[in-house]
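re: ur question from the group chat, yeah i did fold both. here u go
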Amino acid sequence: MDILFEYVFTTQFALFVFVIVTLKSSIKFVPQNRAWIVERFGKYQSTKEAGINFIIPFVDKISADRSLKEQAFDVPSQAAITKDNISLTVDGVLYFRVLDPYKATYGVEDYVFAVTQLAQTTMRSEIGKIDLDKTFEERDMLNAKIVQSINEAADSWGVAVLRYEIKDITPPSTIMDSMESQMKAERERRAKILESEGEKQAAINIAEGEKQARVLAAEAEKQEQVLKAEGEAKAIIAVADAQAEALAVVGKAAATEEGQKAIQLDLATRAIEAKQAIAKESSVVLLPDSSTDAASIVAQATTIINSLNQGQRA
């Protein structure tokens, strides 16, 4: 009886353990951003994605575990020849991710190796289409073309290349020296051009300043002459007005009897002074006759004044 009980207990325990092991083998927890390829009897059965999944123990087998995250792989340095026959050493970084785990497992033996090799060959091909100078200037264009070419070929592998970045482009030392000399000459040329442009602009500014200074000086001189002419004109007008006013006053005074006498006296005085001045300057003295003595002169002047006065009254 004890032996039978022990046998039953052992059988039940073994069955329990078998069930536990079977359940554990049939329940699979796939991590996030990963995919498991399940084969049944050596043939593809399904792709298990993140979360809880069930398989048939001892029948189904996980043949591949693929990461769905973006991956970065270093593309080894390699030699490439440009269109103008210059040998370069180029390396880069490749960024890609698995989009189809089935194709990545059954479409290619090693998709990482395949994509890396394809990146190298595509990079050599693209660099061979351009000159040396453009390899430094058109890195973005090279990167884009390499990505496009790889994606066209890698579609059957279930892989999508997201980016390709060229890290270093190293030409031979002799080319580096010639490029350095060329860059130095180019910098010197630009410096001379900038210096000449500066001198040209300075000369233009100086000439423009001198021109403006001459214009301003001419304007100032013109204004000065205008003001001077206006001042002289006003002075002449003022003198003429004063003389006219003086003549008017003299004329009014001359119309009176006292004015006539004053005029006669003034004329006689001026005649005498003129005679004296002539006598002082000349060693010969002429005696006055009846037509040149002072009394005759005064009489003649008086006659003229009386005639003018009579004409004004008439």
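okk and heres the other one u asked abt
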Amino acid sequence: MNADIRQRLSALAPVLGLVFVIAVFAVMSDDPAQYLSPRNLRIVFAQTVIVALGAIGMTFVIISGGIDLAVGSTIALAGVVTALGLREGYPPVMAIAGGVVTGGVVGVVNGLAITRLKVLPFIATLGMLGIARGVAKWLANQQTVNAPETWVNELAVTFPTPSWLLVAPGVWIALGLAIAATFLLQQTVFGRRVFAIGSNENAARACGVQTDRLKVWIYGLAGLLFGLSGVMQMSRLRQGDPTVAIGTELDVIAAVVIGGGSLSGGEGTIVGSLIGALVMAFLRNGSQQMGWPNYVQEIIIGIIIVLAVAADRARRAKQA
């Protein structure tokens, strides 16, 4: 019974953290009603899309016991590829597909480096962080890539047209993909195997799971989501910028960890990661409204990551 109560409290922790962050900034704000207004909520939801999509992909990676530090660079590269496609006159759907596939290719390369070259995920993706960023700057000729006006620019807009959408189309896309990813993790053989290799890779291999192939699939799937996040970044900026999303990997990893994901692998949920992404969005939004500089936000995020990992370690120690 005690174990069941602890498990439920652990599942509620991300929600309680979100409520705490919202409550703190609402109290500190000069106008709490404005902070909690539908208009500001729309802004927060639109700002959440990029990190939320990245967090969905990162959830698969972290559950499997891996890590991906190239998220920000992949987002920048995918955004540049999408903008270049639009500028060259390709149909918007093809330009978006190019950005998403670019992210998938980066993910597959990461997976192959980890499985074939036996490079640690931290090192492999750290190297890709520089490679993807460099390729993005090369393709963009070290400048921003302006794209013509298309419906792609409306994907991450704060106030959508038509108004009955209520929130940005990207928000609905993220929610739809979150539902699909939750089903994939919880109701399919693929999902069970993701948890298996994160919990005990040797045992999973002994049970017949082709762990190397599975890792390539996981990093490839995550890369596709990072690529879509890059499309949303391009939509928000209305241009492809090879220098954007520096440090976004910290927000994405923090979202997954805050949501209950364990950096040791074997634990995590899509819903928890989305809640973690909302925590990050409300934190940044509240900090901006308070007039705090960016470095204060970065310090707070760093503290949150350390505390979340420390809590996970303490929880695992008790279970052991």
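fwiw on the second one: The two ends are 17 Å apart (CA to CA). The chain is about 75% helix and 0% strand. idk if thats what u expected
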